[in-house]
Structure to design on (1038 residues):
């Protein structure tokens, strides 16, 4: 009798700066993933919903939703990066580099770019830069993530602390606009709202109004679809309280989809500046979202601008535009605080 | 802080007879939508399940289920037509005009064809004729729907009342049989039942026997798949009773799929004569269905006849063939009363 | 008023040895079915997840998961074989004969190969050999299944007892390796684990560690996807205890997917030697799995070996490696006992 063949996950002392981890299992995406994404989230971005709309915008067809691509890339890293993680601490320098289309096959690699043992000697912070690649070995996205990971052997010596310098915000000149993207003939009626980039003011906040009550079956179906198999999302006997913790990415996608109502033209996410899963989300929670316009920028593509948004997801009981208290801590009803760049017609 | 960018929906006074509304968001359908439709409903119509069966019947491949096409077209109208609706009052003159295949992109338009303010001055009835179009701007379906919509401004003057004359039943000579459809070589064994049109008697009632208990996750997944985002279906904090109202179309598809058992050869829905959502449906309800044969007709296509059916969905506690009481009102266990034409081998 | 048109199912006396039943409804599978399979189960076999991985292994693209193909073939037999079944007694001589790819259309046929009335005169055992065929009439799989079926007419005479001689195990020389399969360039990192056939010892047991708590919505969605419409899985009013019995195949797929953790390289199931649904499974149960290596064998394909595994699914409360008690009966927490051959790189 042995457990030796199952994956115990990596512990803090198993990571070395410079180490490159090729993650299992490559994944070919199809219209099936698109249909499921749109069934699990109220996603309605026209560019991701209609081949015709995408063609008018200069793309060969509708890509797989940007966050679906993110989840596929992210899901593969879980067995290697976060199986023994105590906490998911942050994201930075995320960029979408190439749209993903039905038929593409994605895989992921991560490079360890930082390590810092905690003063308690029981865990440490691991920084990885993860890259998603398609079947041509073209990069489709990259992002930095850092997690707190338990030590397996408490006697293992602390590594030299390396904390990478990470940009607070992706510089708009580093945003990658998909080749050919052109919003000159953008049909605002078909897209769902008349608001173009110039209609948004920096500092403007938008209450996205709609809410969705989350069910166990839904978040598990979604999380499995991304081949993210962390026990805590699926096994009601795993946590002492008998609750299944909802994958943070489920909340990201739910909030982003809800933000259609008010940001229908924030079509493509091209950068993830940062993000925090402020509080855990469980089945039965009703998720709502609000956004704040943080910045705007130009791009070289015809008719295409960029908007930097803070996307905040909240649950039932949240005050309007709930965020942080005077102590700088998130209100208990705040689930997510995400900072991203999206492309929008000017 | 503003909600100004979110869609408040149209109020009664915002509609004008003759107005044409182009609805957002176009949608390309794929095998993903078909797989999900067949996973959400016990749909087994051979023509919609098998490319080979469809080819023998003269079609290029299996279309997307007729009601899936309906839901896609209908879902797009919700933000423009029924966001502030108090009640969905009826359907008429629905016709499927062209099968929808994986790869097709659908969009919807609605023309306001009638308006009548209620005597209370607080709401009114809006009649729209909705058309679904594919990427070639070919009509794939059309139907009339009328809803009761709240007034936003109670001081707005009542419009001149226009109540369109609507056919009680689509005349069989107006049914559109898909080009090439031919049931001469129809394989009744593969289709699942031996009964042809001649085996059904007008007035015959069929108890479809099977039942399905509905879960929150399922109706929300289905309703989102059609990009129908009416709050009342998703947000458990929206109604005072904490219940999520199930999209009426979910009940339509469930009942139609259940009717396979006894009507396996009623393959394609080609007309919607009328329909009523008699009582609301909630998660936990067990849906069953029965049908009554209302009429039969010939078509010009080889081996293809038409059958007019009343499809009634009921929930737990319903008497056999539960319908209306002596007062003409629906029994409280009746969920749906639908009147449609389907094509069946003669 | 009549139920005459609905399918009452066959009773014991309706079967004759030698009878061939062509089952309804043929089914074309697509990437939609693959996406759903991977969303409903934590399936991560690289060969079924990635077109690129499959090509390196000599296949034209990633097939539909072996058990998804099984469910499609099996589902079609339910209305003809097990609608009036009291119990599903066993499986034998199952073989996967040809991979199923998106675009293939499957249908099923069953030949009655044995009949034995029970001594109580109220039911009997029916043995069928079921074959799944694709659109070219090529066999994609076959298996023997026997079920206990009620008699409809207790006065019907007992048929001559015919009990087929069934192999306890599919002989490894009868395993069909897909044409072209070649594991010479197998990428163990992408596949998820380093263990090759030589790393497994006969008698070795593997605890697959992970668990999944099952929801009503999930097992119903899965079971409908395979067009298995047995009432007992869907209708909470059908059983006296108000529970919906989970389709045994749902447990098979869940356990097999969980076994990835420790058996990631047991890529393709090629034979089903036997199986028992030891105890019923209901929503709320948390399924875990363990495997035992029963045998290994060579194949003629380059780099491809075969491993015979016992896969046992258990629910909450099970002891480690729970199986049978001293009385030879399954422990009450054992859900499934499956004996199969899979292909694995040597």
């Amino acid at each position: 009798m042995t457990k030796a063949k199952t994956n115990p996950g990596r512990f803090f002392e198993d990571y070395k700066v410079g180490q490159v981890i090729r993650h299992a299992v490559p994944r070919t995406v199809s219209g099936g993933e698109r249909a499921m994404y749109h069934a699990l989230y109220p996603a309605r971005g026209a560019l991701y919903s209609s081949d015709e709309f995408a063609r008018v915008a200069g793309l060969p067809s509708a890509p797989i939703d940007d966050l679906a691509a993110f989840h596929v890339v992210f899901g593969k890293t879980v067995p290697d990066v976060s199986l023994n993680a105590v906490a998911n601490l942050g994201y930075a320098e995320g960029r979408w580099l190439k749209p993903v289309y039905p038929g593409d096959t994605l895989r992921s690699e991560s490079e360890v770019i930082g390590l810092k043992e905690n003063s308690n000697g029981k865990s440490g912070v691991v920084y990885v830069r993860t890259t998603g690649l398609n079947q041509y070995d073209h990069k489709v996205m990259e992002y930095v993530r850092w997690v707190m990971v338990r030590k397996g052997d408490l006697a293992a010596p602390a590594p030299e602390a390396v904390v990478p310098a990470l940009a607070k915000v992706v510089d708009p000149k580093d945003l990658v606009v998909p080749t050919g993207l052109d919003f000159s003939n953008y049909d605002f009626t078909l897209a769902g709202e008349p608001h173009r980039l110039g209609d948004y003011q920096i500092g403007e906040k938008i209450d996205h109004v709609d809410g969705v009550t989350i069910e166990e079956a839904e978040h598990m179906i979604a999380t499995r679809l991304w081949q993210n198999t962390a026990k805590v999302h699926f096994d009601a006997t795993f946590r002492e309280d008998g609750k299944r913790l909802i994958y943070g990415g489920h909340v990201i996608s739910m909030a982003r989809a809800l933000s259609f109502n008010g940001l229908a033209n924030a079509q493509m996410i091209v950068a993830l500046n940062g993000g925090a899963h402020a509080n855990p989300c469980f089945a039965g929670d009703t998720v709502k979202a609000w956004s704040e316009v943080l910045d705007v920028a130009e791009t070289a593509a015809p008719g295409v601008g960029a908007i930097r948004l803070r996307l905040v997801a909240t649950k039932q009981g949240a005050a309007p535009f709930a965020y942080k208290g005077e102590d700088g801590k998130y209100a208990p009803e705040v689930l997510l605080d995400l900072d991203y760049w999206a492309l929008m017609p000017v």
Remarks:
- Chain A touches chain B through 55 residues (CB under 8 Å).
- Helices of chain A lie at 31-40, 46-49, 51-56, 66-82, 188-191, 216-225, 248-258, 260-263.
- The CA atoms of residues 279 and 335 of chain A lie 5 Å apart.
